[in-house]
Amino acid sequence: MMSKKLIPCIYLKNGKAVGDFKKNTVIYDDPAAYSTELVINGADMLLIFDLSKDDKEHDINLDAIREISRNVDVPIIGAGNIKRAEDVKKLKYAGCSHMALNLLKQSNIDMIAEVSKRFSKECIFVCADVDAQILDNAEHIRKYCSGVIYLGKELVDDYKDLKIYCVVNNNNDHITTISKVLSNPSVTGISGDIINLRYKELREIKSELSNRGIPVDIYIPAYSFKDFKTNPDGLVPVVVQDCETKQVLMVAYMNEEAYDNTVRTGVMTYYSRSRQELWLKGETSGHYQYMREMYGDCDMDTILVKVRQIGAACHTGSYSCFFNEVLKKDIKDKDPMKVFDDVYSVIRDRQKNPKEGSYTNYLFDKGIDKILKKVGEEATEIVIAAKNPDKEEVKYEMADFLYHMMVLMAECGLEWSDITEELANR
Q: Model pTM?
């Protein structure tokens, strides 16, 4: 059975979080920090409404959404101020996993098929104020959308083939109300004031919902801390690895409280031996680590955790703590992602520190038009080579294309992680 989601709403105006659709009072100057706090407290997703009035403010809010997506590890639903397909694309590029079109606008209803085909049905939701809006467009919605953000007071129909997220602003008997809404088999998640006003209680609410038989996202570890062999200080060493690049980031220690807090929240917590206290990684720096996988070794005396790292893992500002090269055997690394990263690092270094006679710097000096021309030429060379039976020629031309593509990536300010994340989301 699919777990039910608790989803805080964020209302953006001029890049800041405000009270709601009608209240323009700023409640948080830094929406990214606010979003991180929501996730740490147990939010399963975020529903973000862009309340901008013009294109300039829209761009400011998109920047805020982009920063939010960089700092949290949950899906984001983007809604509000969608007037054309280009706005859906901008929300997707800003990091939204889903985009919701308002059914009150006929132009949005007309656009649903286009954006569904362009960005995939799974990405497209709609917003409805009353049940009739869904009923009147039911066939269209089912064909081109995967979910509904429902803003009405009571969902009366049964939508088994759609994900329904109810926005509820009733604050009375919140556990009873949340339980009632989520008990509806058609409802996937709940949002609105009933969640926003209690965001610091989300884990307690989940626990109560679980006790009532409602499935929610709660980590249940296969091993407790007592299953591990501790050192004389009651600690277990923890090796931390980037879940995407597989790079080892740091080594820290956990006591039982740190372990339990990590398992409960999904955010890495350690025990600081120097300060003799718990240490929530990122609490002061903002460089949080979101747990993806956790393993005990064969002797159960060391823990390996794979994380999504926000910012840098090391206090020096380095991404990894392991940067002091002691020795290195001269071998060719054939790990594809490592090769891409190494080549791209050289290209970015040339961009920042030009080197006389460098072909890469020649391209950067000539500018975007020259880079685009070369990318086009190399793509054509691949097509020509692929018509011939010699795979070596195709290999050579593809390598040429990838190099020029990476120069374009650097020119556009993209990283490999941006590309691989986009591919993973498809």
A: 0.80
Based on the fold, state whether residues 257 and 198 are members of the same structural domain. Answer: no
Written as six digits, the tokens of 116 are 């569904």
Q: Is the residue at 218 inside a domain? A: no
**First-to-last C-alpha distance (Å) of the chain:** 24
CATH number at residue 72: 3.20.20.70
Residue 126, both tokens: 């709609």
Which of 106, 114, 96, 151 is closest to 129 using CA atoms? 151
Q: What are 113-125's pLDDT values in tens digits?
A: 999 998 889 999 9
**Considering its fold, how many domains does the chain have in total?**
3
The secondary structure of 275-335 as a DSSP string is TTEEEETTTTTS--EEEEEEEE-TTSS-EEEEEEE-S-SSTTS-SSS--------------
Q: Which two tokens stand for residue 260?
A: 């339990």
Beta strands in 92-134 (DSSP E): 98-102, 124-128
Residues forming a β-bridge with 18: 11, 26
pLDDT value of position 211 = 95
Is 324 within a domain? Answer: no
Residue type, position 30, single letter: D
pLDDT tens profile 267-302? 999 999 999 999 999 999 999 999 999 999 999 999
